[in-house]
Design brief:
- The structure is a homodimer of 217-residue chains.
- Chain A has a single domain, classed as Electron Transport, Fmn-binding Protein, Chain A (Pnp Oxidase, Chain A, Roll).
- Helix content of chain A is 20%, strand content 36%.
- Chain A is built from six helices and twelve strands.
- In chain A, strand 2 and strand 3 form a beta hairpin.
- Chain A is globular.
- The two termini of chain A are 23 Å apart.
- At the A-B interface, strand 2, strand 3, strand 6, strand 7 and helix 3 of A face strand 2, strand 3, strand 6, strand 7 and helix 3 of B.
- Strand 12 of chain A pairs antiparallel with strand 11 of chain B.
């Protein structure tokens, strides 16, 4: 179960909250990028970036010199993963909405110093973005590992919100002669585009060609 | 032109920066949701939400009681819009990346008090998410308008980053016998799903049925 803290207890739209830990894993595991929020020089900064999960720890990484990573190290952060599933078209402007699944994780980002955890986290990050590639391509060198900062964030404090289904209109608006419903937003992988530098005829591995968007819709 | 400030000047990957204002409009206008970053009780908070643009002002809105909106009002915020366009599959783990278009806007969020600007902003928000719906459905009542806080953010301080194309591998890795290229990520609207409460045979308006994802690849 996800425990409610002042900032994960849902204020608005409580019916959209999910309190089971599996719902959190489902939202995180289905994603490709997150939005990392940090406070830099006193102001918020929101950066799109990759992430990975091992058990109840979320990992983000970046170049050792990146400003967002430096601001996040040892500091309070918020990581948000959002899937937009549809536009909810209501009978009034006011009740327009979106169908979505989102997770927000709050906590202090710990710099990963342990070499084994560092590599395991990078592997998790790689698998999240491109499953199967870690074993298929050249592994990181010691120099490349040293150039990459990895931050760990506990999933102890998190909230999950999900909205699904048709619009919720005001009772008297259901009689209006307007169409209402959901316009789905669908995300999928397209056909792999070979690097022009690749020798002609290089086969596309099945873990790339056969990849499906995980758990979307 | 977008002027460089300490936080919009790109530190890493300078070649991905775009300094023309049209690039900023293109990224913003193609999006459906943004991630709004605020500082609440001293810690960052990143919330997915809708937005709209009129000229060089970005608008976000929310319930008057929402914690994120209260934290943002009159305070420093960061709004980020990200389009994920593809997974960049390199010949080494280290050079894996993503193709994307993203915009980050920084500034102080101004609460919109002027009634005309308030309605104009809500219309822009509505058009961004669901073009054509404002004129097709019941307009907001005075009570609904009062329940909605709108915040304005100048586009004066913003940065745009774009990555496109195949992987950039280390020279010596191009000889490795592995496939490399881009796995495109494509986002599209699905077939409209009618509200079960709708009278059977209600036609789907063309502005919904014929809608295409704006500027997505």
């Amino acid at each position: 179960m996800l425990s409610a803290t002042p900032r994960t207890a849902l204020g608005r739209s409580k019916e959209r909250g999910r309190r089971d830990r599996q719902a959190l894993y489902d939202v995180l595991d289905a994603g490709l990028i997150c939005h990392l929020g940090v406070v830099a020089s006193g102001a918020p900064m929101v950066v799109p970036t990759g992430y990975g999960r091992i058990g109840d720890t979320l990992y983000v990484h970046g170049s050792t010199g990146a400003r967002s990573l430096r601001a996040a190290a040892g500091a309070e952060v918020c990581v948000t993963v959002t899937h937009l599933d549809g536009i909810v078209l209501a009978r009034s402007v006011f009740h327009h909405s979106v169908n979505y699944r989102s997770a927000m994780v709050y906590g202090t980002a710990r710099v990963v110093d342990d070499p084994d955890e560092h590599v395991a986290a990078l592997r998790a990050l790689s698998e999240q973005l491109a499953p199967g590639q870690w074993d298929a391509v050249r592994p990181p060198t010691r120099k490349e590992l040293a150039a990459t900062t990895v931050l760990a964030l506990s999933l102890a404090e998190a909230s999950v919100k999900v909205r699904q289904g048709p619009p919720s209109d005001d009772e008297e608006d259901y009689a209006l002669p307007v169409w209402a419903g959901v316009l789905p937003v669908e995300t999928a992988f397209g056909a792999p585009e070979p690097d022009p530098a690749l020798p002609p005829g290089t086969p596309v591995p099945e873990h790339i060609a056969g990849r499906k968007m995980a758990l979307y819709q």
